[in-house]
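Issue: copy button drops trailing tokens. Both records pasted manually instead:
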Amino acid sequence: MKRIVLSMLMGASSLAVAQSASESIAKYREMLAEGNPAELWEARGEALWNEKRGPKQVSLAGCDLGKGAGVVKGAYVGLPRYFADTGKVQDVEQRLITCMTTLQGYTVAQASVQPFGAGASKRSTMEALVSWIASESRGMPIAPGSGHPLERQAYQAGKAIFNYRGGPYDFACATCHSAPDKRIRLQDLPDLTSSADARKAYASWPAYRVSQGEVRTMQHRLADCFRQQRFPEPAYASDVLTALTMYLAEQAKGGEFNAPALKR
């Protein structure tokens, strides 16, 4: 009997510690939110959008992100979506690569170089552009494309990827993100099969990661999940990542977008 009581007390104590830690992390984020360093990436992204660059020395002002050439306001929350000119469903990073190759004359390799920043000497053009584009959708409802057959196909593919188990640990995305009240150490794990949790999680990316000193995009976040599952890392801007993003965006549909956010 004593053992049972002791076990219950230890369990209650652990839960209290975990809840206290979660509350402390939330307060920490709230304190820093007003001075989110992501604003620096946003400013650089806007400048890069308007700068004449590449072999053709033109800006991205003619880039169609789904709202018409040059329209950025509200574009991010409408992605991923189908684009007739490529015949594909694309997320924001895939679409930017298309614009950089067709409008500015870069090769795919050039447009994709250094997708993730690593300090002042290795800044990422893509992370800056995505930060600014995302910021232009703050306060708007998440509404990815869902009417075209290829959009529905991408959603189903993303759902299958989310639930696929494999690798040395027999993990899936769903292993960590398909039930409420889960955590790894002190990190809460959102239940991405729940619209409430999915909206909260999806609406906060891209985000400035304090631990890395960089803004990270959804592509980076998903690639990192594959790494933690010990899966082979998908190629940057691959259709695998776009399909998974489509699934998450659809799960979060209707939620209010609020990024770039701030993460630990």
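Record 2 (pasted manually too):
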Amino acid sequence: MSDLRSVHTEDAPAAIGPYSQAMVSDGWVFVSGQIPFDPATMEQVPGGIAEQTDRSLRNVRAILEEAGAGMDTVVKTTVFLKDMGDFTAMNEVYARHFGDHRPARAAVEAAGLPKGVDVEIECIARLR
């Protein structure tokens, strides 16, 4: 039987539906899609795609750390963009958050994202 636990931190936005911020199973962390909401206000951060990507990845980082993982243990990410024209600006911020670590990634344009945001990011990571 595998272990299975949900992850919650006040340092990332609370789930806005019937799901967990992340789930941990058998040494893996599955982080739900993170949107650019400030966890203190549960409101979208001001600014464009760079600010939204930064906030989304800061939310991912907080959840990973709560779970016992980190950005350097991420194996795969999926980035959902409202407009693929924002890819370059998103990618610059993404690269800063991951440094030399290069997880596998998919980036797709989505017709609509939760709460009308421009970016949502999910990931899978290993526990430390």
